Amino acid sequence: xxxxxxxxxxxxxxxxxxxxxxxxxxxxxxGVVGENGAGKTTLFRCISGMxxxxxxxxxxxxxxxxxxxxxxxxxxxxxxxxxxxxxQLVCNARKIKLTDSKEKNIFDLPLNxxxxxxxxxxxxxxxxxxxxxxxxxxxxxxxxxNGVDVHSNIVINQVLLKLKELNKIVILSSHIFSTLHETxxxxxxxxxxxxxxxxxxxxxxxxxxxxxxxxxxxxxxRLNL
Amino acid sequence: xxxxxxxxxxxINRHLKELGIEPIIAYVAIPCFMYWGSSSFFEKVxxxxxxxxxxxxFFVATISFSKHDDFLKQQFSNLIYxxxxxxxxxxxxxxxxxxxxxxxxxxxxxLVLLLGVILSFLKKLSKVNxxxxxxxxxxxxxxxxxxxxxxxxxxxxxxxxxxxxxVDNFNLGVxxxxxxxxxxxxxxxxxxxxxxxxxxxxxxxEFLKNKITIAIRYSILLTIPIVSIxxxxxxxxxxxxxxxxxxxxxxxxxxxxxKYAFNSLGNAMFQGIIGVLCLFFPPAMFLLIPYFYYKAxxxxxxxxx
Lengths: 225, 305
What we know:
Chain B: The chain crosses the membrane at residues 20-38, 50-67, 79-99, 105-122, 143-166, 172-191, 212-232, 238-258, 270-294. The complex is a heterodimer of chains A (225) and B (305). Chain A has 225 residues and is an alpha/beta fold. Chain A contains 7 helices and 9 strands. In chain A, the strands form 2 sheets. A 6-stranded mixed beta sheet of chain A has the order 5-6-7-3-8-9, with helices on both faces. In chain A, strands 2-1-4 form a 3-stranded antiparallel beta sheet, with helices on one face. Chain A is globular and about 50 Å long. In chain B, helix 5 (78-102) runs antiparallel to helix 6, helix 11 packs antiparallel against helix 12 and helix 11 (238-261) packs parallel to helix 13. The longest helix of chain B is centred in the C-terminal third of the chain and has 30 residues, at 204-233. Chain B folds into 2 domains: 1-128; 131-305, no CATH class. Chain A binds chain B through residues 48-50, 52, 63, 65-67, 70, 72, 76, 78-82, 85-86, 88-90, 92-95, 112-114, 117, and chain B through 129, 131, 137-141, 144-145, 148-149, 192-196, 198-202, 302-303, 305.
């Protein structure tokens, strides 16, 4: 279980996360929603240990960063590295022997080509394959559905449900409510660095309504279309 | 084109200011430092006239503006785009060219200018998607990337070692070994994105040990053909080649540690200065390596537990 207590994060005296208190249990899928710049990615980076912060993040099964599979919004690939070599690299990093990458290539990626030449969706699928091969206990997925084709979205949905079945902790962000409805058990609405609302599946619509009510129509009216 | 160079000039000034250096001071200090560095290089480094053009090539290849390549291609006509690429490299080569002319090394001057121009065309080649097989598959990263970018240097080095036998010049063979270690050390001159460090389930000590072991293994592997040739034809002098092997390994190790020791501002600049100083005075590495190890370990603790 991951328990976050009173987490604060600031950049240059600007607080981007304030008093975050959350807990994530194995076998649960948590969605984090909010506008661009609300602090979702910063929160993910704090949990994964890429960013420093004030407060506490407790994990009861060892060093949290060593069991996290982190999928960034825009995965970056080193130049002149093939898809297969990337998978080898991320497996080596976790001391896992990569066997039969062909069989595990569930997205049918051209693994013998340079990863930097992949399309946005293919890059995301390669990065996702990498963290799935690492046998992680926790998965943090920043916008996993963005830029990915419909068929692969269905595969990702199924993968998420499988991870839940395997008792993994999954935390993801998405701007597509329908996918969150299908996969998540809990939703956390992050606004201006604070958790404004945390709800379970029965109450997802209220978060959607609240987001819509937060002045979206008034802003569109300002355009005088 | 005029606007491009005006903007380039402004950007260079901004970078200098970010580093805390007043541009006018930099424009005076850099040529002085360059003159002093080059003079000392020729005074103190063996095979300087071979090594100097090689240094220039790598300086140009590292500094060249390839990151803007796509942008330039979109904005300018093909002729202007090509002109900018050639001109950029000529500007970069010019100070070295002046120095070589001053030293009356005319053949080397022409070589440096030609290599600079050729490099501006090679940028395009570097974008070729052909996947060059490497012997480094088990531990992908610096050596795979570096080897694919600089494989031609190895062909040249192996060629030089064969020539060293043909012209009966042992020193030329040793130069081949030195150039390979020099190239391998440059694979560690840029810090990888944070994710590629963070992803390792290792302590800082394990991480550094892993990097160093791989680098030693692979750099020695690349010099084996030259050492073998020298061992066959100059067995009585092989201890000299082995001494350069040890120095080469130390040089690569120092570069790895520097990469993580200077992981903040001015990484490449500091590495370059210290790298050149250690070419003048290799024993400095015995002091610098432990210091950089300590510094690198301390920096890595923020990402590795």
